[in-house]
Write a structure and sequence with these properties.
By secondary structure, the protein is an alpha/beta fold. It has four helices and 13 strands. The chain is globular and about 40 Å long.
Length: about 220
Amino acid sequence: MRILAVADEESKGLWDYFRPEKLLGIDLIVGCGDLDANYLSFLATMAHVPVIYVHGNHDESYDRKPPEGTICIDDQVYTYQGVRFVGLGGSCRYRAGAWQFTEAEMKKRIRHLRGRIDRMGGFDVLVTHTTVHGYGDMSDPAHRGFTVFRELLDAYRPPLMLHGHIHLSYGANIPREHIYNTTRIVNTFQRYVVELDLPQRRPEPANLWQRLFHHRPVGD
């Protein structure tokens, strides 16, 4: 699967200077937050593939007027062409406002998804706004990643995580990619094309999940 991922800053090449051939070969567009709703609506109009997204910490307006023709996957497990996506938007809480969460609040969101993830036998792509703490985040409260994401990646070991929030324009030495265990973590600032070749499906790691989150087994 060839994924066009976008976040944080609208690409002039995909909006002001758009040409249809720029989307040739793209199977799916993924928005990782903090984008003009009209931009995502434009991509959904021009592309012949789904546009899915999660909220950034500056996307309160989406709750009143979401991007048209798109699919919000926040707190959802979304499947397309056999690829399973989990959406967890928002940033670490650093001020009052929507789409900001404490570690405990994000952990609660993950717990609510656990049953759906298990029924799907795991997932393949984690779509977030911010990253995993220690993997491409920054030291200030506004740009810190979530530690609890590590537990999610440990439990299910998806091959890919897509995020935004950390602008590559913040510094010359900010890497676009990291590796956490077997998961490739990609900062999708502005736009980035990612090729995803899925390995053979792995069995559901229910016991590990139960140890991490102290949750009852499904069916109890």
